[in-house]
């Protein structure tokens, strides 16, 4: 490989790594999962400025950038319309079985 004037030679190392991690899901997600598990309720966060509802709840409105809190959470209907979906074929470790499987994703 020829080197052009002004270019430096560089070395590249390639490897695959497994990087397990843990993080706090935050107050809104805790409330979301508690309501789902204990009361079978689907919750969302409703922006006090524009009224947009996000589910799963978000800490900041994607439209207005207004901070949302647990007090901004509202119960959603258990019914909806699937607007779009895909299957992500990058292997995902199923926490229930430990096996690898594709990851379905839907937008309602």
TrEMBL record:
Residues 41-65 form the ChsH2 rubredoxin-like zinc ribbon domain. SUPFAM superfamilies: Nucleic acid-binding proteins. InterPro entries: ChsH2_Znr, NA-bd_OB-fold, Thioester_dehydratase-like. It holds the Pfam family zf-ChsH2. Transmembrane segments: none annotated. PANTHER family: BLR3430 PROTEIN, DUF35 DOMAIN-CONTAINING PROTEIN. This is ChsH2 rubredoxin-like zinc ribbon domain-containing protein.
């Amino acid at each position: 490989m020829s080197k052009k004037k002004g270019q430096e030679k560089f070395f590249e190392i390639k490897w695959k790594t497994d990087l397990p991690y843990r993080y706090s899901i935050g107050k809104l997600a805790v409330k979301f999962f508690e309501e789902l598990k204990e009361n079978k309720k689907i919750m969302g966060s409703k922006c006090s400025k524009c009224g947009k509802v996000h589910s799963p709840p978000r800490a900041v409105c994607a439209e207005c950038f207004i901070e949302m809190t647990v007090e901004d959470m509202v119960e959603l209907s258990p019914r909806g319309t699937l607007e779009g979906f895909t299957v992500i074929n990058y292997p995902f470790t199923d926490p229930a079985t430990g096996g690898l499987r594709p990851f379905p994703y839907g937008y309602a």
